[in-house]
Every structure is written in structure tokens, then in C-alpha cells.
Amino acid sequence: xxxxxxxxxxxxVVEEITDRVKNASGxxxxxxxxxxxxxxxxxxRNLREADASYKVYKNTLTKRAFDNLSxxxxxxxxxxxxxATSSDAIAPIxxxxxxxxxxxxxxxxxxxxxxxxxxxxxxxxxxxxPSRDGLxxxxxxxxxxxxxxxxxxxxxxxxxxxxEK
Length: 165
Known about the structure:
The chain is α+β, with helices and mostly antiparallel strands and 165 residues long. It has 2 domains: 4-129, Alpha-Beta Plaits, CATH 3.30.70; 130-165. Helix content is 58%, strand content 16%. The protein has 6 helices and 5 strands, in the order αβαβαβαββαα. The protein has helices at residues 4-23, 37-49, 59-68, 91-102, 120-127, 132-164; strands spanning 26-31, 52-56, 82-86, 107-113, 116-118. It has a 5-stranded antiparallel β-sheet with strand order 2-3-1-4-5. A hairpin with a 2-residue loop joins strand 4 (107-113) and strand 5. The chain starts with a helix and ends with a helix. 22% of the residues are buried.
């Protein structure tokens, strides 16, 4: 039988995982095997810049935490897994996807976005969404196009009125 101190320590870790997942808008599980120490340091730096972080937990403890939260991501917990979390739902997905493009050893497995279990395909689709600033720029450009067209129409109309005089 396991020591009570060990059981208590494991319960603390399960509670920590549960809190991290519950309080995060974006959670991504990924395989980090094959990355060098320098690459892992760079990955941590990139995640920190996006207000995200990652930590490696034992899969059995992560599974217990997911069971407590009624999350079914058992297929993502095969082999070594790290968990990236952030208050921004898309930030860890974008950082990890961009990093994986240059470092093929990093593989996304699945995740949770806004409390919903997300498959690898959905993560890839979310990674392609432009940032908030990019979306606002596209929106402003779309509005400017309409303003430009109205200005051209008003100018042509004023020219027609001048010709009729």
C-alpha cells in the first residue's frame, strides 16, 4: 500500500491540474519528445510572451484531473504529454502551431478551448485564425472600402449635377 504522504502529494498534483484546466480558456496537450533543451527554453519563452505556460505532469494524474472535470481526452494521454494553458483560448494553440512548423519533433495532440474538448483538426483550424489585431485590421480595411466607394459615388453625383447646370 502506498504511503499516505505520497497519496496526499498525488492528490495535490491532481488538484493543481484540475485548477489549471478549470481556470484556463485554452488548454493544449502536446508531445515534446525530441526537442533539445535550447528549443524547450525557446518554447517556454514564446509561451510566456503570449501569457501562456506549460508543465509536464504524469498521464495518470492528468487523467484523474480530467475525470474530475468530465473531460474525455484519454487518446491524448498516450506517451509523454505536456499541458499548455492560457487565459486566452487561442494563444497557446498559435504559439505551439508556429513552433511546430520549425520544430517537427513537437506534435499537438488535442486540447480544450473554452471548456469544450477539441480535436487535433480543430486545433489546426483555430491556429489559422488571424490574431485579434489582424481581424480588427481586416474589419477596418473592409469599412474603408465602403467609405471609398461612397466617396466616389458622391463625387460622380456632384460632377453630374455640375454638368446639368
